[in-house]
Records
---
Amino acid sequence: MSTSKKRAVRPNLGGSLRPQAETPRHRFLYTDVTKAEHEKIQQYCKDKQISVSQFLADLMLQDALQPHAKRKQKVNVRLEFDLTAEELDKLQLLTRLHQKQSIGQFVREILQPYLEIQRLHAPLETTAIRYYLSDEEHERVTKHLASKGISARNHAAMLALKAVQAT
């Protein structure tokens, strides 16, 4: 009987290590990613020669250090999606019936209840990735996430995917 062991992917071979923390990095958090997202993150880490744990921890610490006031500024989002002419007519009619100035205002009103939910959930098949933090880093990140009302399992994945797409 032979067992086929899958060789562990070591993206940080030859890369720089994280600076040593004051205390050992025994604390950890998880993030949930899909299989495709996990592959993208691993490839990014291989290219940068850093570990996945280091990548996620650095992103979370960087986010925790950003001033809160900057996050409250309004951002203009433009959505683009395809509709048939019939669907567009219905959307314009719904906008008029709900007495909204524009389709954008109508769509925002529909999305607003979802944006106000404290904990976001969706039926997504995911894999957990663990990233390590020191006691001080863990405290800083968890306080930051608690103030935002966002789960660490989703926020780290979102930050990682933004960073991967930016390259």
Note: The beta strands are 27-33, 127-133.
---
Amino acid sequence: MSKLKLLYGELNPGVLSSQAEQLQKAGYVVQTAVGRKAVQEALKKEAFDLVLLGQTLTRDDRHHLPYMVKRVQAGTKVLVLHTDGSRHPYVDANIDTGEDMEHLLAKISAMQGQAQHQPKTAAKEARTMAAKAGAR
């Protein structure tokens, strides 16, 4: 199984460094970006499985960047930290204010599991559709 490749953006380099280290210890390949422009530049250069938009990014950045991620890399998942529980149409998952690193790791793991199961489900649906079409 390949490691999940993450792009993790924060505005505060200290928060970014400490949390990125914890994500790497958990087995993820992590590229960091400080600020909105750095996140956008990284998206233009490399493909990622998941983009984490951190708690120290401005509220506007956490709102604007999901659109940018999906525009550049439509299949990339977006997880936004430090939310108020509301859903953004381009955000695949969010973590509310006050959650700890263990909760974040569990959320990433759950998202990774969903991504691994989707192709199997799509293949099963295709076989079912083909079987139904053949029965006509």
Note: The chain has one domain: 5-134.
